[in-house]
């Protein structure tokens, strides 16, 4: 099966920062979606946590995550149902100018089944310790995904970048 | 502080930035509370664990590599 990655849209945050980035009116013409993120927030902490919502819906999300910080590894089951937890990005107290990275894969986003999501992320600390993690998320909703939103506890700062790709398998 | 959201229309490619509505602000607060309650990756806890480890190694007079060797 051939596979093609098609650029759909991108957003690079401007000087004022922003609380949320949303990709709207996503066509259902692809097989899967891929989001690539480079981000940092202004939260007054080393770490921040960002989450994802589909179709502006705030219900029926769950997750399982596995992460390590360079000295220990932990796993946990998410009990928040208001958004899909997507792991961590650097906050304002992290190493200056270090941006975290995340890849988020959403298979069969336009199907009439529940939507699963897999992702990996790292807080790129440019120092000895840096948290890296894997996430498996489930949105228990059968609606086709037409919009995807990202929000953190702090605001995404300038140069945070979000790229959306449509994955076509044929 | 006024919070904004960026909306990228994937059909047109156009990007707009608008202020969050009161309803969105309320939802955002709820999401933050939920995320904070859920996630226990705590900066202070991580720092304490590292400090405790370093203190124990110092007390034992071992390097981290020597401790690993003992446990292997």
The order of strands across the largest sheet of chain B is: 1-2
Strand content of chain A: over 45%
Rg calc of chain A: 16 Å
The overall average pLDDT of chain B, rounded, is 79
Largest interface, and how many residues on either side?
Answer: A-B, 45 and 33 residues
Q: Give the total of domains of chain B.
A: 2
How many strand elements of chain B?
2
Task: Indicate the structural class of chain B.
Answer: alpha+beta
Structure report:
The complex is a heterodimer of chains A (170) and B (72). Chain A is mainly β and 170 residues long. Helix content of chain A is 0%, strand content 56%. Chain A contains no helices and twelve strands. In chain A, the strands form two sheets. Chain A has an eight-stranded antiparallel sheet with strand order 1-12-3-8-9-10-5-6, with no helix packed on it. Chain A has a four-stranded antiparallel sheet with strand order 2-11-4-7, with no helix packed on it. The radius of gyration of chain A is 16 Å and the shape is globular. The N and C termini of chain A lie close together (6 Å). The relative contact order of chain A is 0.38. The model of chain A has no long low-confidence stretch (mean pLDDT 91). Helices cover 60% and strands 15% of the residues of chain B. Chain B is built from three helices and two strands, in the order ββααα. Chain B has a two-stranded antiparallel sheet. Chain B is elongated and about 60 Å long. β2 (18-24) of chain A pairs parallel with β1 (4-9) of chain B, so a sheet runs across the interface.
Main attributes of the structure:
heterodimer, A: 170 residues, mainly beta, Jelly Rolls, eight-stranded antiparallel sheet, four-stranded antiparallel sheet, 0% helix, B: 72 residues, alpha+beta, 2 domains, two-stranded antiparallel ribbon, 3 helices, 2 strands, 60% helix, elongated
């Amino acid at each position: 099966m051939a596979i093609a990655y098609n650029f759909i849209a991108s957003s690079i945050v401007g000087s004022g920062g922003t609380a949320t980035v949303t990709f709207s009116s996503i066509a259902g013409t692809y097989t899967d979606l891929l989001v690539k993120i480079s981000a940092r927030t202004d939260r007054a902490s080393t770490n921040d946590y960002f989450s994802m919502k589909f179709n502006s819906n705030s219900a029926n999300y769950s997750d399982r995550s596995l992460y390590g910080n360079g000295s220990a590894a932990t796993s946990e089951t998410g009990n928040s149902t208001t958004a899909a937890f997507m792991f961590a990005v650097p906050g304002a107290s992290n190493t200056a100018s270090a941006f975290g990275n995340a890849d988020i894969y959403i298979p069969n986003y336009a199907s009439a089944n529940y939507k699963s999501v897999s992702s990996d992320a790292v807080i790129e600390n440019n120092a000895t310790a840096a948290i890296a993690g894997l996430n498996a998320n489930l949105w228990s909703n059968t609606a086709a995904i037409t919009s995807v939103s990202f929000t953190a506890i702090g605001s995404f700062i300038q140069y945070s970048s979000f790229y959306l790709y449509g994955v076509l398998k044929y | 502080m006024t919070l904004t959201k960026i909306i990228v229309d994937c059909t047109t490619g156009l990007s707009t930035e608008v202020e969050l509505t009161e309803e969105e602000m309320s939802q955002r607060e709820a999401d933050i509370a939920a995320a904070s309650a859920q996630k226990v990756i705590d900066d202070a806890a991580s720092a304490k664990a590292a400090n405790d480890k370093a203190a124990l190694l110092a007390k034992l007079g071992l390097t981290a590599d020597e401790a690993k060797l003992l446990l292997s």
